[in-house]
Structures are given as structure tokens and as C-alpha cells.
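Folded chain entry
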Amino acid sequence: MDGLRARLLSAALLLPLLAGCGGATARPSGATTSPAAAAHTHGHSHAMHDVPADQAPTVALETRPDPLGGWNLRIRTTRFRWAPERANTEFRPGEGHAHLMVDGKKYTRLYGEWFFLPASAVPAGTHVIEVMLNGNDHSAYAVNGQPVRATATVTSTPPASGHSPAH
């Protein structure tokens, strides 16, 4: 019985480490960790790939209210290729995915230019939406230790009384 307890305890201690952002987060060769990585908004750190500003990808975030509720997000990038087929693999310069945060908490990964953020993710009130570019290995792209990211502030209003949008 003691062997079983030891294995269960080991598994319980390893589980949070493996959960991360969709798997184990090993530091890739050549990646650096900066104070910005530790402070990065969804509560745990990742390695960062510091890239010279003239070679770094860029990201811009546009938000548009959806007529039926929620928000349509458009993520425009330069020097960056969306590579969902290589998520959770080795870092390759200039490709990867993005992490979407709502009010400082990771909401999901993004694998392309458009995303619908449902009203349930942004209830009535003001919210900060953030998109951060990441490599296939989840390491954040950075310039001078600062993650490559874009933010927008949105204000959601409660639905009109008795309104139930048809889908």
C-alpha cells in the first residue's frame, strides 16, 4: 500500500506542472526567461524568445461588438505565420499561435486571424482583452524582455430586458 501511496503522491505533484498551457512547458534552447515572463498575465511563467525589434513579429487587435452579443476579434500580425498543426512542438522562428486573455486570465489559444468571444466571457462591464504571440512551444515572443502583445478594452452592456437572440 505504501508504494501505491507514493505513486499517487508523485502523480498529484506532477499534474499541475503538466497542466500548464496545454502540456509540459520545457524551456527551449536559446530561450530566455525575464521578469516579464514571471509577471505574464495568466499566473505562470514561460520561456521567452527575445527577438530584435526589426525581426520580431507584430500583433494588432481589433474588437467589434457582435450584433447577437459577444465580440468579434480580429488579430492582425506581421512577420508571423499561424501554425496550429505544430502546436506543442519545437520553436520555429516566425510561427506559432497566440494566447487570448480576458481580464488577465488565459481564456484560450488562438490559431488564426478571427475569433468570436462569447458574451459569457465578457459579462456586463469593462474588460481588458489581450492577445500575446507565442511560439509552437508556448514561449512568448518578446522584444527587450517585453512580450509581443496587443490589448483592447471593451465595455459590454447587459442584454435588453426580454431580448433573446435567435441563433
